Amino acid sequence: MPASAGPVAPEILADIAAASRILAARGVVDGFGHVSMRHPEASDRFLMPRALAPALTEPADIMEFDLDCAACDGDDRKGFLERFIHGEIFRARPDVGAVVHSHSPSVIPFGLVTAPMQACFHNAAFLAGGVPVFDIACDHGDTDMLVSDNAKGVALARALGDRPVALMRAHGSVACGPTLQTAVFRAVYTEVNARVQHWALALAGDAETLASLSDEEGRLADQPNQTAGRRAWDLWRREIRDQTGW
Ligand SMILES: [Zn+2]
């Protein structure tokens, strides 16, 4: 049984619970989906709610796991079945501080077709440079589609590579970032970008003709920790504080 890396500030636990509720309020998660954050004091631990609908998450629901996804200090509450998504991305990507997994509906079609997801506007600049598609069948054949063990998490992290977002065929997507705020921003704007691309494809009829951001435009416009990303978080966080008091 792994030991806890130590207590976490109440404000951080509240931010993780708020992130769960923000993602629900923005239509990124519904009854399913989850967000996690690396432990601020220990790179080999992460924090994640127990298994429950994200909109119901309270700060007291946050659990601590090691990167094998075992709960610390014998916490016997039920964790999410797909927590291996988070553990293996944290293991593979030292630059990642937070991960979001969702089944947001506008994104799913791009994991089913050959037309790639493109960065259709500046708030989704982080998508420029490519959005890989993880196909769980490549390594694991026929499954229930869930990333429910370490080996499947490893395969997903490999497909993600060094990118901020990966699609999961016939399932959903993952978004990650250096901070909780950036991962939430990217998850929200991946869903918005998918809607914009559907509208653009309805007009254009051809993914090849979309005037989306170039790789270099994406690099220049991807400033998640500067004003735009922070402003969005401050707004969304305030809405949750007004509802919950925390
Ligand atoms: Zn899932």
From TrEMBL:
**Molecular function GO labels:** aldehyde-lyase activity; metal ion binding
Protein's recorded name: Decarboxylase NovR
**Sorted alphabetically, which InterPro entries does this protein's record hold?**
Aldolase_class_II_sugar_metab, Aldolase_II/adducin_N, Aldolase_II/adducin_N_sf
Q: Gene name on record?
A: novR
The biological process GO terms on file are:
pentose catabolic process
Give the Class II aldolase/adducin N-terminal domain ranges.
14-198
Coiled-coil residues? none
The alphabetical list of record keywords is: Lyase, Metal-binding
Report the EC number(s), separated by commas if there are several: 4.1.-.-
Pfam hit, one: Aldolase_II
Show the PANTHER family listed in the entry. Answer: 3-OXO-TETRONATE 4-PHOSPHATE DECARBOXYLASE-RELATED, FUCULOSE PHOSPHATE ALDOLASE
Instruction: Report whether Lyase shows up as a keyword of the record.
Output: yes
Q: Which organism is it from?
A: Roseivivax jejudonensis
Keyword DNA-binding (UniProt): no
Q: Which GO terms describe its cellular component?
A: cytosol
